[in-house]
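Reviewers asked in the last cycle whether our approach scales beyond single polypeptides. To address this, we selected a multi-component target totalling 991 residues and predicted its structure end to end. The input consisted of the following lines:
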Amino acid sequence: MTQVNVRVDGVSYSDDVEPRTLLVHYLREQLGKVGTVVGCDTSNCGACTVHLDGEAVKSCTVFAVQADGSEVTTIEGIAPEGSLHPMQKAFHEMHGLQCGFCTPGMIMASIDLVNDNPNPSEDEVREGIEGNLCRCTGYQNIVRAVQQAAAEMNPTGAQA
Amino acid sequence: MTVTEERPSAEAPEKEVGKARRRKEDARLITGKTTWTDNMVLPGMLHIAVVRSPVAHAKITNVDVSAAQQAPGIIAVFTGRDFAEEQGSIPCAWPVTPDMVNPGHPSVAVEEVNHVGEAVAVIVGRSKSAAQDAVELVDVDYDQLPVVLDMESAVGQQPHLCHDHLASNESFRFVFDAGEAGTGVDTEQAFADADVVVSRRFVQQRLIPAFMEPRSVVVSPQGDNFTLWSSTQVPHILRLMLAMVTGTPEHKLRVIAPDVGGGFGGKLQVTPEEVLSLLVAKRLGKPVKWTETRSESLMSAHHGRDQIQYIDIAADREGNVKGLKVHILSDMGAYLRLVSPGVPVLGAFMYVGIYKFPAYRFDCQGIFTNKVPTDAYRGAGRPEATFAIERIMDELAVELGMDPLELRRKNWIGAEEFPFTTAAGLEYDSGDYEQATQQALQLLGYDELRAEQRRRRESNDPVQLGIGFSTFTEMCGLAPSRVLGSLSYGAGGWEHASIRMLPTGKVEVVTGSTPHGQGHETAWSQLVADQLGVPFEDVEVLHGDTSISSRGLDTYGSRSLVVGGAAVVNAAQKVIAKARKVAAHLLEASEDDLEFANGSFAVRGTPGTGLSIQEIALATFAAHNFPDGVEPSIDADATFDPVNFSFPHGTHICAMEVDTETGRVKIRKYACVDDVGKIVNPLIVEGQVHGGLAQGIAQALYEEAVYDADGNLTTGTFVDYLVPSAADLPHFDTGNTVHEAPGNPIGAKGVGEAGCIASTPAVVNAALDAVRHLGVTDIRMPLTPERVWRAIKDGGDGGGRATAGTTAYGGASTETTTGVSTDESSLGGDR
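The resulting structure, written as structure tokens, was:
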């Protein structure tokens, strides 16, 4: 067992974990952060995407111990309880989800995308989220959602 | 009389049906507050891991579990012998012929294994990792047998046998002959008399549903009662089947489908793991959980498609179709699962498409191979049929030198001819194929793209352009119970709904249809809000729990709205009828003098007398002042059994760029106009079309489940099985025409499968249209750059590369995970 000290969604945790424990399993099984899900075992689907110190990572590709000393944000921590992040709101408004299983990861990846590129074109969104698979939507409404959220997150982005 | 009526309220609220309501269910899905089965944790819960066969066909000579039993954290290990007496067989509910051969399907193998990935032992541990670690410690001795993988060999001369105790590899042979059925003329005669006959062999590659949420099961024993949560499309069917298979009394078993992350037919199943989880929970008296890995899912959850189609079409020189003959080999895999044999049979009645064939014959052989069983995958039989007819129509057009759209137009059913009974014996309900086609041509910008195609052709541009059509129909609203009975299906096709009027006037709608992404909670709320005249927000939709929703037949076959929604509407009508009696009593009026509008009863011609149905709900709860002889409830149930299928249709047009130097294909534009009848929520309908298109296009361009010569699935991860990403798919231009379905009170036809059924042939036809002038007559799916390039370079369908070592129908194996390519490798997609 190895100790890991990590701040998740604004709360500090100090836990003993097996060194092989993946961050996603630590989040789900030890912290009960089940909003973040596991969709594959080869880091292809992106369903487990969270932010590690502000950057999107696939939490199935990070050991919990690698997050030691870091700040992790999950889908459960991007907006205060009772309110929505512009990206969440846009996914709802644009019908960017159906079954919703890929949605937490898709939203986390999309926020990271817009942080890097405040005014992405359709093609840039498609390229930017290609590490996240969705089987329901055909992506078109996800693309619309990301572009709408980008406009809200960066009101001046259109002029940039 | 009508002109003098006054409305009880000044202003009628806007109708909910037709409104692009944002979905209610999103609130939990976008915030991570979901109830996926794998999220569940119960006190003392144990974890199951499954030991799976690494060989495709073998006798099991020994299973040594001693090391696993002694591993840390292991509670128990079970083999097939341990459960042999109680596991029964995974049920097959659709014996399509009286003499269908069903070899039986143990949940955990006892004597032999018949496909890679079949369960051979079950490990129960205190943690998931302990159970998974111990999988390595189980030592199984296999006495290997020859493997059967290729269907044409399996029915050829002296084949190896998939099941050595059976006489052949054929499970069934199902024949429908329109001449014999009286729905058409003699097929042989029609072909003998025809000017032109075109014959083709098409391959429907094996696909994997690949729902995003891996399957998961939790079972909690409480005394002699069991609650089972499962990531399933079919909690009601699952409960019944588990009761029958395991001998658990049905009333002692509660099945719950909580939030379910996609299904696409892949969770329309009674799985070995569900049976095993129940048996383990029974044996140990402890709650258990099993959640699969993606690799397990791809290698052991059922697959879809996998047919070889031999299609013959007959016509006269003017292009009037005279007959259609269909012979298909349909790969069942190693066993029959819930509706495996029914999938090709569902397609049997759709091969004639929208065309007026005078003669039709369908002949299907279900074949066993040592691969994972096939079963429902989005469209289930209808995509295969649509592909065959829409591809062969193009081939006939080429043969006749006709424009493919003109050939279709010449033969399709005219708008004035509905209802129309086809040679397959189905009565198509409504539609206008010309109207949908005209709209789709406009959406695409057809003339401009045809002009560009000519320019590229004339200039010998290395990038050629092609345009492909699919003018399709499908049958939805599964299904009239009597029809299912005539096809030997093991259940009916009705759906159930209940409406509960709560004291505060809020409404609970219980539906037997079980969503997993389709938005029932929103759409059903819209239906009920309009029916009862209550606010959308006042309606809650409950589903997926057999204790709450006592009757239901679940979600598949684009049936939810058409059958389940109809039951909801009928239940609402019954609520109104009951409330009317109460209203008449409270308003001291005759029932006949009351009118119900916008949620209120009022005495005709007496303004200000309104009594809302929500107020009546409270009065009913109190029951202080109630009419004599009337029970104090306005709640109601309804069960709807459709009299006919519904027949959505549409025109899909794909414009495709083909790089003749690299074989790369790129969808330039995709336009479709679908007629799905009445649209309850345009946002949801558009989303369903998008998702269907993605999967249909993925069959054409990307996806294929590939087995090697030993029967190993070489596309066992998302590295190799190419579910498309956002960057792999185009923008879709979609539209609708509306011809309501006469067969249900909503007028809806169903939309869940339309895009998936229609799109595949449009895409392939487009690619072929781009390169036909180069001598290409077919390209095998998926249209990888390699296959396209080979077809252009060598002729044939590009799939004829050395197939030794693979059953990929075309030789493609995959890039390995380390990125090493060999001559036999590369599906051509990248990720």
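Chain A has a mean pLDDT of 96. We regard this as preliminary and will revisit it once experimental data from Aim 1 are available.
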